[in-house]
Amino acid sequence: MLDQTGHIQLVDFRFGKKLASERTFTICGMADSLAPEIVLGKGHSFPADWWALGVLIYFMLRSEMPFGSWRENELDTVAKIAKRKLHLPDTFNPDAVDIISKLLDVEETTRLGSQGTDSVKSHPWFNGVEWEGIRHRTFPAPPEIVSRVTQYLEVHSEDCSGSLGSPLQEVEELNVPEWLEDW
After folding, report:
1. Is 179's pLDDT higher than 80?
2. pLDDT per position as a tens digit, 6-26
């Protein structure tokens, strides 16, 4: 989600689960973004989240899900995920193809991110991203995003009648969970 200044904001941890190194068998989410280990019932851990990031990046670039949509046929979607039947369009730049391919690796242990968050953050697709600036909200949100958020707030002003206090102040007041500190 984005806050009123266009900066990213984490929300909704209703399905959050604290894990150390064990696997979980809890399934939540739509079939479109589930990792192969989830759809195959093998249990999953953090690499499933990196898979979901690959799905999100693909979706943001293409405006469609990489393995089809459960709305069309859930069994076909799950089968494509399990076999990683993925087509990357020629319109994707090489860095996008590389990061998506590495995040959507069927093998959990070689999936990008399985080696730690820095393996993702240092990928060339993220060149120019100032991670500390994003964390502290000093890295400017893209003007296109700020414009869209502003337009949305103008149209939906009565729906958003809550306090629009300083987002930085709100972040500083939060107790950041230990697992989130690396980001």
Report:
1. no
2. 888 877 666 677 777 778 887
pTM to 2 decimal places: 0.77
Q: Directed axis angle between helix 94-103 and helix 47-62, to 10°?
A: 150
Structure token digits, residue 46: 């953090």
CA-CA distances (angstroms) from residue 151 to 2, 5, 172? 13, 12, 27
Here the tokens at position 133 are 């600036």
The domain spans of the chain are 31-180
What lies within 8 Å, CB to CB, of 113 at 6+ separation is 46, 47, 49, 50, 53, 103, 119, 120
| pLDDT of res. 177 | 59
CB 38 within 8 A of CB 15: no
C-beta separation of 31 from 78 below 8 A: yes
Read off the tokens for 162: 């809550």
SS3 assignment, position 163: coil
| Whole-number pLDDT of residue 161 | 56
Q: Which CATH architecture has domain 31-180?
A: Orthogonal Bundle (1.10)
> For tokens 């100032």, what's the residue?
130
Q: How sure is the predictor about 50, in pLDDT bands with cuts at 50, 70 and 90?
A: very high
